[in-house]
Amino acid sequence: MNLTHLPAAPPAGRIGVVHLGLGAFHRAHQAVYLERYRQRTGDADWGVCSANLRSSVGLVDGLRDAGYRYHVAEYADSETLTLREIGTIEETLFTGKEKVGGRDAEGRWGRDLEALLARLSSPETRIVTLTVTEKGYFLNPASGELLADDPMIAADIDTPTQPRTAPGILVEALARRQAAGLAPFTVLSCDNMPDNGKRTRNAVIQLAERRDAALAAWIEGEVAFPCSMVDRIVPAMTEADFARLAELGVEDPNDVVSESFIQWVIEDDFPQGRPDWEGDGVEMVADVAPFETMKLRMLNGSHSLLAYLGPPAGIETVYDAVSSDDLRALLRRYMLEEAAPTLVMPEGTDLATYADSLLARFANDSLRHRLHQIAMDGSQKLPQRWLQGTLARREAGQAAPCVALGLAAWIRYTVGRDHAGAAYTVDDPLASRFAERHARHGQDPEALVSAFLAMDDVVPPALAADAAFADAVLAAYRSLSEQGLDGALAALARG
Ligand code: NAI
Ligand code: CS2
Q: Domain Mannitol dehydrogenase N-terminal: where (predicted)?
């Protein structure tokens, strides 16, 4: 093993960034960039206070107990590893519901809420970043409208000074800053959503309007919500990952594993200032949309194809999936024939080379990126990964057989049983709706496919009404059900 250790820089002591969503990706991406920035410049202004609003109180307390130090194990391949110690997270907070004796019902909410709101109201805090997953913004996946009827959002509307959601916490923090005569902070979403800054702004303003029109107008006029494209494959840790690191003498429950590749493309709109990230390879641009759409449709769209085709056929990880020539051929066909033609990229962008680089990253034999993890929250992911691009293709009269197969696979995946009949959890905010459709139409493929396509908060109505496309999804569904993955891929290849 070619192993490189990189120790963390000394703590800064000044918190310039507050992060919502202390998960694996935040620890392996934004925190890494801030660590590299601090190592390069010695600038002590950009320490991070990182909060979990909903889960993982163990990580919040574990990082605190470990002196806020952890490692990112960056694998270029199974023989080349950089162990990067991170010290930029200097405070961790938890505002979710605590379990009492393991029982969720009696837990109280908001253990550290006041501490988080105080951090967010501090003049030192100039940037707020988020990785709360696509569902953490409480937006209709297709329209981008705030889900005002969601019980969590309804609670934040009823008790706005005791918020529980990311949008609610941002509104309350901005209200406190406005009341104190302070400038706002810049809100930087790092979630895999198209126009993630605009969608975050949308959620925050729609929620603020239900509280105070003047506050909403202030936010609309004063708060920057730049968009960003983020990229680093950071699988959820497995026991095998911890065992591998233990063999190297690194035993820390807060560590994360990632690939060595990392990318961040950010719209340069930071009125309160920012680190000069350019020195660490961050691309600061005027418009991030082309980069974001390219990555969401080519990388994430490919990931989702594997995520729904793989598990029912007993395939567990991305690496296992791309070890199959047929699945690799499917990804290449999807990327070059269905995704790439929908993209508008700067002159000279070579999408074929980009596709090859993605397939090489997927074949990283040191990442155990579970397909079930990628399959999570499909209702929140598929609009931007497959459906918006496919609608454009259909409106131009072009076929989309790979996405039709992907949608058929997603519908089959949501039944929650694999090829051997073993049950698994369908982890999605709309899971109960899927179960209801399977219970009612499970024996009638045509009615089942129609019922899924009719979910207009996921599938654009114009695409659902496209009879030729709906027929292609039904044919793919029947092919998967009757001939399995190999048969369906062969049918696709025959065209
Ligand atoms: P994770 O499971 O480690 O962390 C998820 C975080 O989201 C946790 O802090 C959790 O508490 C929070 N969360 C979930 N639902 C929430 C809600 N309703 N409200 C508030 N917070 C909520 O997952 P990970 O790997 O950190 O990914 C998080 C997000 O980062 C992804 O959804 C994606 O948008 C983005 N991302 C992830 C990449 C990866 O490879 N893991 C790569 C690129 C982007
Ligand atoms: C994955 C992404 O879980 C998923 O949905 O497709 O987290 C993917 O690993 C990242 O976007 C890569 O940058």
A: 16-279
